[in-house]
Each structure stands twice: as structure tokens, then as C-alpha cells.
Amino acid sequence: MALLKGTLDVLVLKTLSWGPMHGYEITSWIEVQSSSRLDFTDAALLQALHRLEERKLLSAEWGETENGRRARYYKMTAAGRAHLRSETASLLEQFGTLAAVLAISSSGR
Amino acid sequence: MRPGESRGGIRRGIARRFRLPLRTTEHADADAQEELRSFLDERIAALMSRGMSEEEARAEALRRLGLSFTDAAIVLRESARTRERRLTFRDFFDDLMQDVRYALRTLRRDRAFTLFAVLVVGLGVGASVAVFSIANRVLIRPLPFRDPGELAWIANKGEKGLSGETVQSQTLLDLREGAPSFRNIGGYVPFYDVDNTKFTAKDESARVTVIQVTENFFPMLGVVPMLGRSFTSDEASGTGPRAVLLSHLTWERRFESDAAIVGKAVVLNDEAVTVVGVLPPTFDFGSVFAPGARIDMFVPIPLNAEVNSHGNVFTMIGRLWPTATVAAALHEAEAVAKRINAEDSRREEFTPLVVTLKEHVSGRSRDALTILLVSVAVVMLIVCANLSNLLLARGSTREKEIALRVALGAGRGRLIRQMLTESTVLAVGGASLGLVLAIVGTRTIAGMSAFNMPMLERVSVDGMALAFTLVLTLVAGIAFGLAPALQIPSASVNGSLQSSGRGFAGDRRGQWTRNALVVAEVALACMLLVAAGLLTRSFYNVLDVDLGFQPHRVAAIRVDPGKEQLTSAARFTAYVDEVLERTRAMPGVEGAGLSDGLPLGGNRSWGAKAQGAPDTPESWPTVFVRIVSDGYIGSMGMRLERGRDFVAADIPTSEKVIIINESLAQRLWPGEDALGRIMIADTARRVVGIVHDVRLLAVDADGGLEMYLPFRQTRDFSAVNLVVRSTLPPETLTAALRIALQPLLPNLPTKQFQTLDTIVDDAVSPRRFTTLLSTGFALFAVALALLGIYGVVSYSVNQRTQEIGVRMALGASAAGLQLGIVRHTMMLAAIGIVIGSAGAWAIARGMQSILFGVTSTDPVTFAIVILLLTVVAVISGYVPARRVSRIDPLMALRSTT
Q1: What's the ipTM?
Q2: Residue in chain A nearest B86 by alpha carbon
């Protein structure tokens, strides 16, 4: 299932609400949570991370992974938390409305 | 791994508060590269742990990347670069906003200080921007013509007066021929009088000012009529159809902006003339060529033999070829002049002078404006020194706050930036006020046409002035914030936080800075005071000048005769008699006379010689000529030194007579009695009177040689002014005169008497302008210096409370301590005065050309300035020093401040 435009950013923020993670951790967390049903490339994810950091929704720092590799860790900023809240609310509302409209069955006529 | 990075990095879950900046693109690139590799490594490791071979895992990882490795690397490098660029900017901007917010909060807490600082900066910036706007318009901005750089002013460097500066029409033609550097040469006749022409419309007449220009005058300047066209050769030939061009203002006011005006006839001096065009609003003849004058209409003047016979009448403007230089043009003009002077003895002497038109137009005001520019620069310096001092004193009360911030990890650089932001915020606040003041100021100045300075009517705060304001504000903000900011110690946290004693602002360096600033303020104020003092004394000297006439209670009005009164000499004589008789019969009139011109107005000159003198150029001096009637000399309050005034009996058939001034008498008959002698002017005339010299050209310049011819014996005049000495106000006089002259001049133009006081006043107005402004600046500077001294002394008294308490406890008297403080103040002032006097001496030397009756080292001015500054220093030092006597030694010793 291809991602709707703009939803990757929210997904990343949602993931990071669990705590600082590096890029691969983020993608594998999303894969696990969505049972690999959400389809996005790793390049897109990394770009999204750069973009979010640029908007100061994330901050980044080099750190060491559990297996001793260096990785760029991302952490959500206060602005990122606020953004996640408002985006989640608006996405859920959109999907709810969409679902309600699409669920109207034509047989009821 | 990049070199120079710690191996460990940070542990998971621990975030640093501040982002480590990646300063260069190389860093950003390497960062992105490493992140990509690390990501792929993690995925490969994860895939392999699920049982894939390394090969398979790598292939899968690359597949998941979605792009080829190279492409992904490029894309990520770009996004990382963008990110760093924007973040750097945002960090800067966020810090700036934080600093600005903090500064505003701090300043709001200290309202009195903020208000004062904004006011001081506002006045300084306002003055600077206003003066800059004037200088920009008058000195820097190009003239409002096409390719103004190519325009040149060609004058005759002859005798003084307009006749000496102008040329004959044939000379203009010869120059066109013989000076190929000029693409074109045109000119106008500067011998016009204000309101020289009667303009009649709907049975009512008014007087308008008409000036004669050459056919090519407007095309050469690049001025294109807004309606209609410029003159044709036929119209300019002198024999063709008569044509007139209207100024934009005249078209609006007198013709109600009639869009169909072109082709219609107007009545000028009872003759119909066709309007061929209307000039654009951007063209203002007066503001460029005749400051203060309003020219209503333009008519063409031919360059023919008849006009040539009028003598020197043309002021020339030339347009140079783009490649030609003024020097080359001058060289050519000199060659032409040499030929004319040698070949044509009947031609007026020509000694050419060629300068750019811009130089000519701005030249007259350059010295005065330079003085004003220097003055505002000095004022701005004092403003900066003053605020610097205030901020320093403020810094001392903030030392704990700053120490706290240092302790919390703020770096010195960050704090300096914060302080500079604060001073810049103050400067911006002040500049906003200053800009308003400057706009109001320039509007007011532009509206005061009486100031008689070229281009002044066009002065306004424009884009260039706004740019200047911006730069000035930033420079000022940094300038006065720098000294206090640099007082921030690098790491002396302990001192201020722990101790209750004097912190960094009280140390020797701070003391030294403050003292230096006070010395600078006094020195700068001293310079301005001396400059203003010299200008003021010059101004009063100018007002005190013996004009040779007494303008008080004298008024003048145009009473040009109608056509029929000029048909014969007898008729004109009768006209003169009757005008004078009727006027003198009016109640309240003490004396009346006629003249073709007024002092400080236009002028013309002729050659004249003593009868019997050899016919050499030396015995033909150029003499200013006035045509006057009996009673003029008395009404003007001129002094008849010897002989008699003209009388009604000096008529065409009686002996031709003349009155000359003392200078001319001396020149023509040195060491002899001129009275009763015969001289050659227009014709042979007997000298019947000798008058005291009159300031004819300017209040601050000697008049020169003058002669007066009786109205009844010549017809060579272009205007008739009635000069009346009376106790009546001008309005009453005008009304009474209109009734008195009704039978003679049925439609006397609806114009009021002009008082001679106004004429003299207008003549000194540029000088008044400069004097007023520079005095204003100087007083402002003194007030700031006073505040500066006061601030420093009261600060040091506060700082030394404990020390003073100890001294008093040990037996020192309050009076003695006060004396010490005042003595210290005096010493600072003395150093400032010495430095300032030296600076003033240098400035005054540059002012020499606009001083009048005082030398640049005028001891009186210097003495007064030194005395004034000493008094100011004593007062501003003594007032805060008095606080010493209120110090209770016990309280001072106990207090921990």
C-alpha cells in the first residue's frame, strides 16, 4: 500500500514519540507496527528525516548503536511533538470523514 | 568515522540541548554519506541475522533503498546541504529574535532610560537625515534634465554684476561655431524683473514673470513640453508669429489646467501671444537657475544683430558631446574669446569660464552645506558617546544579571551580541522617531521658498535618504553599544556573583572609558559651538552692515506706464509727475520716488568714463546703472553726501544730469571733486550729486560703482517701481494707492506692496538658515555634553559611596570631597576644551568663505565658548557632587551595595 502524501512525516514523528532512534530503527519499527503493509523506500525515509530536522521538528545527534556502529540518532523536539499532535488529529478526522462517506452503501436506496 | 570526533558520541536517550553545528558543506556531505552507509549496514546486519547470505542481504538492502546507491547518495547530500543552510539561518534568526525580545523586555523595565535614549537618538538621526536629504538633493543628485552630466555653465568672467557675467548674442553664436566640444549652446536673459509683464484675462490684469530664452533652450536641456511643443525657428526669429510657453504651475493656476490651451491666445502687455505649449511639472526654472524666483512664462529671443546691440544679455548653457571634457571646452572657448577680443573692438570683452552646470548650481551652497554635514556628523558622534556612557553606567547596575547568565553557560560572544542587539533596538527606535522628524523637517524646509537655495523646493526624504538612515542606525547602534559590550568580562563569574563590592564596570578600564567619552563629548560640543558662534557672529555682522539705504518702513510696487503714456517724452514726463504727485498727496506718505530696479534685485551695468579722460579700457569702468526719479534717494533713506537730488525740472530738454556714488567719484576723478564734472554714460551728463555707496548685489558684498540717471531724461528702462516711505502697513498702502492712481492706471495689478525689509530679509535667508541649524545642533550638543558629565559624575559618586563614607568617617569634610569631584570634572572638561579648540580651529579655517566680519580664530567666540563649556562642566559636576553631603558615613559603611 503506497503512502498518502505527507503521511510519512507523521509516521516518523509517531515512531520517535517512543524515544530517540536512528534511521533503520525507525523503518523497522514502522514495518513491525504496520506488518510491512506500508510501502516506502529507505531513501524516502532518510530524506524525510533531513526535512523534519530542517524544520526543527527533530534534532539529530551521532550516537552508537547496540551493535557498536555509529548512527545518526533522531529525537523529537517540542515543536515536533506539537506538530505530531495537530497532524494526527487532522489526519484522523480526514480519514474518519473519508471512511464515513465511502461507507455509505448504494444498496440502501 | 571522521577525524576529530569522539568515538563514543552520546548515549541513547541523552539528547544534547544544542545542535552541533555542521559549519561547512563538506561536513554536511560527509554526514549524509555516513548516515546512508550506516543505515545500509544496519539493514544488512538485520537481514543476515534472519538467515540471508551477505550477498543476498546487500542486494535486498539496495532494493529497499528505492534508488541506486549513487542516486540516493546524491539526493541525500542535497537534502542535508539544504537542511544545514536553512538551520544555520534559522538558528541565527531565532537567536536574534530571542535577543530582540529580551532587549525589549529589559528596555520596557527601564522606561525613563529608554525614552531618553530614543529621544536623543531620534533628534540626532532626524537632524542627520534632514541635512543629508538637503545635501543629497543640492550637491549629489543630478539635475532634473536629460544627461545632466553633459550640461555646462558658460559665463563671462568679467566685472562683477550680471552684465559682467553675460555675453552678447554674437559671442554665443561665435562659441557655437568655434567650440566644437559643445554639441549645442543656448541661453536665457537673466535681466528679467519679477512681475515684468502685464497679463490680462477677462478684463482683469495681473503681473507675471516672463523670461526670454533661446530657441534651442528647452530641446538642449531635454525638457519636452507636456502639452504642445517648444518654439519654432520662425517664432524665435523675432519677426515671426509671437509664441509663449507656460510653466506647469501657471497653467494650473491661471488657466485652470485647460487641456486645450495650446493654440489659444493670451494677452501679454496688451498684445496677443499664442500659447504653443505647457512645460512639464518636473521642470522648475527657478529652482535651478534662479533660486527663490517663480518664472511663469517663457518667450523666445532671437540671436540677431538687434539683440546683439543690447550688449551683454545672455547667460549661456551648453551641452557637451559625451566624449568632450569641460577642460577642452574651456580651452576652445578661450581661443574664441581671444579672437573676438582682438578682432572686434566694438564687442564687449569676453573672458570665458566653463564649469559643469551641477557645479555652478550647487557651488553657491556647497560651503554652507558642508558645514551642516560636518555638524550633523559631530552631533551623531556626541549622541553615540552619550548613549555609550549611559549604557556603561547601566551596565554596572546589571552586572549581577550578566554574571548570572555567564554562570548559566552563556558565552562572552553571545552576551556581547545580546548587548549589541539591545543598543541596536534602541537605535532603531530612535531612528523611527528621527525619520518622522526628518520628514516633517524637510517638508517644512522645502516649503520655505524664502531660503533662496537652489533645488531646495525639491528636497524630500527619498529612497537614498532611507538607505542612509538604515546604515546610520546600524552603525550608531553598534557604535554606542560596543564600549559597554566589551566591558563584559570573559570569565570573571565569581567576582560579581559573590562579592558585594564594585564589579567589572567599576574597574579602572571602565572608569577610563567613561572619562574618555566625556572628554570626547566636550571636545565635539566645543567644535560645534565655535562653528555656530562664528556663524552667528557673521550673521549679526551681516545684519549690522551699512546697506547704504534704510529698508525700514519702505515699500515698493510696480507702476509700469501703459502704452499711450510711452508714445512721447512729454507724455511720459507728465506720467512721472502725476504718479509722484498723487502718491505724495496720500496721507501717511513721507516720501515717494521711482526706480527701474531695487537693491538686492536685478542689476545691469554700462561702461562710463570721465569726459576728457583718454579712451583706454582702464578709463571705461563698468558701472551699475539705475534710472530713478526725484525723491527716490530720500525715500530709500540713501545718503546724499554732496550736491542735489534730481528735480522735476530735469527733463529731456534741460541739461543732462547724473548722480554717482562715492566709489565712482573716486574712480573717475581720484583725489578731485567730482561735483559739477561731465562724464560719459549713455551720453554726456553733468554730475549733480554724490551719494553714499549702496549694497546693490548682496548684503554681504560691496556694491561697487554706481550711477543714477533721471527718469525724465532716458527711455532705457524695463520697469517702473514706485518706492514709498510711509508709516502705513503695506495692505492699507496698496488700497489707498489703488484709489489714488485709479485715473492714471485703471487696472493696477492686484499685487501688494513689497516691503524693503522683506527684500533684505530674503537676501540674508540662506545665511540665517545655516546659522539657525548649526546653532540648534550646537545647543543640542551642549545639552548632551551636560548630561554626559552629569551621568558620569553621579555614577562615580554612587560607586564611591563606601569609600566616601570611610573618608568622612576619617575626618574628611563633605565640602572637600565635593571640591575634589568638581576638580576632576573640570579637568576632564579642560582636556575636552583643549582638544575641541584645536578641532574647532581646523573646522573654522574651512569655513572662512562663509564667515563675514569675523576671523576664523575670532578670540571673542573662542572665549565665550570656553567660558560656556566651563560653566556647563561646573554645573553638571557640582549638582551630582552635592549628593556627597547627604552621605551618612555610618550608613555608607554598613551598606553592602
Answers
A1: 0.91
A2: A54
